Amino acid sequence: MHRLLLVVALLAPSLAHAAEAPDWENPAVVEINRLPVRSTFTPYADKAAANAGGASDRVVSLNGAWRFHWAPKPEERPVDFYQPAFDASGWDEIRVPGNWQMQGYGVPIYTNTKYPFRKAPPRVTLDPPKDFTQSELRNPVGSYLRTFSLPEGWDGKRVTILFAGVKSAFYVWLNGERIGYSQDSMCPAEFDLTEHLTDGENLLAVEVYRWSDGSYLEDQDMWRLSGIFRDVDLVAHSAVASLQDFYVTTDLDDDYRDAELKISARLERASDASDKAFTLTARVYAPGGDEPIAELASEPVEWDADGAAQVALSHQLTSPALWSAEKPALHRLVLTLRGADGAELESIPWRFGVREYEFRDKKFWVNGQSVKLKGVNRHEHHPRTGRHVDHATMRLDAELMKRANVNFVRTSHYPNDPYWYALCDELGLYVMDEANQESHGFGTGSRALGDNPDWEFAHVDRGVSMVERDKNHASVAVWSLGNEGGSGRCLVAMRRAMERVDSTRPYFYHADEATTDWRDIDYPTIDQVEEYFEEAKDRGPRGKGVLVREYAHMMGNSGGNLREHVDALYRHPNYVGMAIWDWVDQAIAKPRDGSPLAYGQDPARLTLDDSEYWAYGGEFGDKPNDLDFCINGVIGADRQPHPHYWEVRHAYQPVLLERIDGQPTVRLTNRFNFTDLSELRWKWSVTADGVEAAAGELASPNAAPGESIEVAVPGFDAPYNSKAEVRGVLSAELKEAPPWAPAGFAVAREQFLLQPKPYEPITPRQGSGLAVEESDGKIVASNARTLFIWDASSGALVSWKRNGAELLAQPLEPHFWKPTNRNQKGNGYAERLGAWRTAAADREPLGHSAYQAGLGVVIASFDFRLPVGDSSCRLVYSALPTGQIEVDLQYTPGAEAGETPSLPKFGVRLALRGASRTVAWQGRGPHENYIDRKDSAFVGNYESPLSEFVTHYAFPQDNGARTGVRWLELRGGAEPGLRVEGSQPLTIRAWPFDENDLENTQRDHELPQRDFVYLNIDERVHGVGGDNSWGKRTMDKYTVPSNEPRKLRFVLTPIE
């Protein structure tokens, strides 16, 4: 409280002008009667209860059903609803915690940077543009009511109410008396209720404003939702004296072996307490231990005139188990406050990690080891409950991160729910804890708010509140001052104030160089990373290391060139780390019939039912909005991994596996920091044409962190069938099960080509030869069982029958267009490469021929000039009497090739009748993969229903590719099937709809299900890219160059 009063005094001259404004439009008022923010803990009656854990009889949850009234503007709110005589019997019920928009009140608004109200700080209720949602819903107010009675044993206790999160500003009343007010929706607000409690039933009232001046600092790229969205608890403390807060630090010695444990505690006692001889004791338990390894006790507490005291305890820990993300060893601490007679007044348990974070030499150090941070950004989002995320979903998020080899998570862009930090402590994730500060609508680095003295208090309060709340978490490794906010005096003051609370961790902020320990490169390409470090050589010690807060924008079908980013991370010693944008799609489960959002019977459910779809910005009539710019997760809103999840897992794996010069030897480079490779189980397997031929286990190699070792893999040099493609896999598995994965889980895997497959030309089988004739612009090749018809001008195969059954629903013809991914839209993909969209359809015939070759084979050949770059194309079919057909497509660049845009793809398209299909293939899989996102997709034999072969992105776009395909079969259904077999590895996409459907639909559930399979068979397809969604392109090496010859050859065989 003293820190707030000091800041208020310093800012007093600037506050006077705001005296007439309402609290929620006054940046000088961030709280009224709010208690100082403290660390997250639960008090228990005594140390026995604290040791046992579980529910505490000193805490009562007020989660559940509350009475609720929603008003679209402040003047329509029920002004006196907090009075005991007010009749709220006609009000609805709402679930707390939760956002009211997710329960049918008002409108969810998704916008990235644009404020959803008229920008005129600190006002939020001025007339906005007419099309804004706010024009009609000026500043909705939610009025909440509920009653409670104190449990037995709480008589005489000091009782507080703790709101873990309310957005964006709120007042609290108890029994008709105003208790206080608070902003900063992502940090807790605690109020003392003691003097206003009554015997029996108490009436609690909360009034929440959707917008406040605080909303100017909450302009994060997310759904703008409102209400009491985190837990609400009553907390009882001893009225005689209580532990108000504590701070635990561990200071490791120079060898990072022994540590000094320091505990600083803040106590308060009642002014009339007769017993002043209080003591604080601490019991320390080793990880998993039941008996204390240390028992500490303070001298009798010395109180100041206000009844407050600061107590310090310390203890030397000898060779304790250290905490790291790899080995999250948590010690246990139980603090107990006692009176002079030894009676226990209250006890507080806490789990802490013995660890030391350092920023030095431009690097990030944990326990003396330079650590590379491989991370993700995580918004708090649930598809049904919005900003409120239940504990089970949070745990699932953390487990999925660990399984993806993520070791670092940024709480973008605000302090997360307290339970998230407990999970990161337990499972092992380094956390960048980010203050709830973003004013992106003014422009990143703007001084409009960042250098405005009227806003200094609000900035400082947000930073300090976060540090005070989370200072004891082992996982919190870096403090962030916010995201895409301002620069100037407010940010400088913010860091200084935060450091006064905690100076044991490094600090980061990308928008003000004066406040950060590391430099940020915003969504860099690989070239930009290399340029920075090349220039850094000239800066010497004055330069800063790099921590990239956001990279690899995962919007839709994305995640290309991750391997290159990780290689750069390890190539440059001062490249500290990076975090993918972002973790989870911010999609909302919306009823297809347009009915209001509602929690229903199971609000924690993540999956959709058949009456719902994934909604994004604009789907609720919200304006302004940024459409599907919120759909950019590594995983879906239902927590199902997207295809790029598996690429993240592979790119981030903690062991680099490299085969040496074609030998049966693999070099293992240990990228762990605290784990020897001997702690893993090493298994190998060999497949021949996708079928396992041998498998075994290696003796565990010894390689300390940072070291490399070469190991011979027994099965990698065995003789195999000379006509088979032979591949070997080496994997590193967990010997024991951690909390986030089963034993045997593979933390690193790599596949190696041991023997390539020789591609042999097709040999015609005996059969009745095909006759060929040309008439009426058609070329027809046929025998008694087989019929092929080509359009003599276009060269398209327009009909293909076997035993009278037509296979084709659409012709087989050249096609060079690939629909735009959402991540490619902003870089002008369609405009730059658009000449190829109709290039094949607009091809100019140059000549054709058709003749009968040996063994009854018919050769039909077509030459074309393409309307792009004076290039040309030849298409040759070899039709066999057995019904098979070989397709040979060749491309020759023209004289203007240097000016010709790259091809979106090079290949053909066709549609096969019948959509009830199973897809089987030998190639990369099982998940979708593209040329720049395929390392995680090993070559093998796979099978999938067509509905699962397709990737269902919330916003339809190009999808479903499988690269490295040796053969693929469409099986099942009433219609004949098809086998595709390449004379080189193919890229194939198969959809139960066509390209026009895909390009003209904005919601996945609206894609029609056609009665055919639309098939793209390609030599090469443009990569997905993914550095960002607003200009950066796919790396050149993952495009399809048009200035060089290209060739595609494959055989199609009917399956009868």
| Helix amount | 10-25%
Gyration radius, in Å: 33 Å
> What structural category characterises the helix and strand content?
mainly beta
Which CATH first-tier class of the largest domain would you pick?
Mainly Beta
- Low-confidence parts: 1-17
N→C terminal distance: 81 Å
Envelope shape: globular
- The mean pLDDT is 95
Which topology of the largest domain does CATH recognise?
A: Beta-galactosidase, Chain A, domain 5
Tally of helical runs: 13
Domain Beta galactosidase small chain/: 779-1053
GO biological process, one term: lactose catabolic process
Pfam family, one: Glyco_hydro_2
EC number: 3.2.1.23
Summarize this, please?
It catalyses: Hydrolysis of terminal non-reducing beta-D-galactose residues in beta-D-galactosides. With 1056 residues, the protein is mainly beta.
